[in-house]
Amino acid sequence: MGKYEKLANEIVKQVGGKENVASLTNCITRLRFKLKDESKANTDVLKETDGIVTVIQAGGQYQVVIGNHVPDVRSDVDAVLGVLEETEAAPTGSLFNRFVEMVSGIFQPILPALAGAGMIKGLAAIFSFALGANFQASPTYAVLNAMGDGLFMFLPIFIGYTAMKKFRGSPFLGMMIATAIVYPGFLDGSITAKFAEAGGLNFFGIPFSVPTAGYASSVMPIIAIAAFAAFLERQLKKIIPDMVKLFLVPFFTALIVIPIGFLVVGPVMNIAADLLGDGFIALQGFSPLLFGLLLGFSWQILVMFGLHWALIPFAIMATAQGEPTAILAAAGTASFAQTGAVGAVMLKTKDKRLRELAIPAFISGWFGVTEPAIYGISLPKKRPFWVSCVVASLAGGLSLVLGQQVYQMGGLGVFSFPGYITYEGDIAPAITFALIAAATVVVSLIATWVIGFEDGNVEQAMSHEEAKQAALGKQVVNTQDSLISAPLEGEVIPLVEAADPAFSSEALGKGAVIEPSLGEVYAPFDGVIETLFPSKHAIGLKSNQGVELLIHVGINTVELDGKHFEAFVSQGQEVKKGDLLLKFDIDAIKEAGYNVQVPIVVTNTKTFGNVLPTDTKRVGREDVLLTVIAE
Fold first, then answer.
1. Model confidence over 452-481: pLDDT tens digits?
2. Active site residues
3. Main-chain phi, psi angles of 598, to 5 degrees
4. pTM score over 0.70
5. Beta-carbon neighbour count of residue 305 at 10 Å?
6. Phi and psi at residue 510, to the nearest 5°
7. Contacts of 595 (CB under 8 A, 6+ apart)
8. How far is CA 246 from CA 113, 168, 231, 243, 251, in A?
């Protein structure tokens, strides 16, 4: 036990004792408990305990905010708790939100590979169109076709891994189960044909059937099978002795799950998927125009809240099974509408800083990366965002009226064009969509220009003299290092509006929040790295004049365990102002369901007279974010 033994014992006691703790993790400022029964915790007592800043109950976690020395406290708490028995966490949120979160967690890791495979298929289609039948009969085409089709054919194996991991099972067991349902004898129909005259397939006398092409390229069956397998695996781990658990758990899990998958789960999920697919087709058939208008208008909003994951699986299922989909054709116009809107802002604004932000956002928009445009420009300006939604709606309706469909998953933006080439190699639909995309950019740009937006020069960051006046004449700590530069670019938000109560209450110190437009964090002063959390989502620095600064990227992003983060410094390292500290993937973090606000606070605020945030609405790395005032 360490120097926080007394505090650790008190924390464990007040959260309801060891028996009430399901799991414990920590981030750079707080202990994150999952309690079996939060009503047993004495929250008021903990808030008044010396050494505890506050307590926050959010996201299914009981968070005890400690401060920068939380790793030392965690170590002593672990010593008090001992080895925790693994306990299943209860799901939180509405049923629909849980469904969206589940689908996102399963498909998000394999989307880059799906896009790459789709682009290879698009390349093969382009060569087929350009070079004709001779190329389609060539070994080069055969290799390209295998490269593009391989992932889609064995898609259940990939989903077996991600779904099993999502359901807290063993990922490689999920892959093993998936290989059975895409076994070559089922894919080519040879097993079914072999026993056709003997009455068909059966398992110990129980008859079952397999789709014509087996379960290749299917999605829903393996997800349901993996969910059942993960549940069964956990139950078996509880009853099988430790000495034989390593091999008997996967043995019995597979022996039970795979036959049930063939007999019950697979057929039921295929029927359900067919019904849902037929529903989308029926809606599209009822009115392609209405379908395109609604999806085009709402797509950006759905993406912002992560709700697009309720639709993407149906597009994946269709293209994986060799069927075109209109979902992506209607949604694909949204990125071009957003690009046109931000292009108008770029050309019309008189604000130098806004133009500097708009230029890279406009460029990235052509390639389907619109988050910098949405969150950094159009959404804060409001009117450009709604213009982009309306134009995307009209373009989506036009696209479906013209019969546009996507034949293979591809990239985003202009990289999606090959996905519109038909299976026969007809490039005309791709050209049509390219023209629609170009027109969408132009119309959105003109409409945004005409309707306009609130412009005007962005206010400059507080000068040194203004900071002193704001502090009622108090002396500044140091003429150089008291002015803390913004460590990253983006929109400035008052700390009291932070999405995390530990920051908004100023319990961890005074400062500000930045809504980032670029996922790069730079040193705001000369100093030393005091803390770099293993998950890389937060970093603590100390300036040469003694200012201790915490930069916390995202809310609850510790749960990502370092995914989407990259550190360029190490704990104890000396840094100079402007040195690159961290990089993080804004889009991926948002897609994973996390808020990317970056609270920046002076954790030793009480040492100084005051900490004053800038009153400018947007900052770059050369702008002053905070001014620290001495006693």
1. 987 754 333 344 344 444 443 333 444 444
2. 27, 552
3. -120, 95
4. no
5. 12
6. -90, 155
7. 499, 554, 555, 556
8. 31, 17, 17, 7, 9
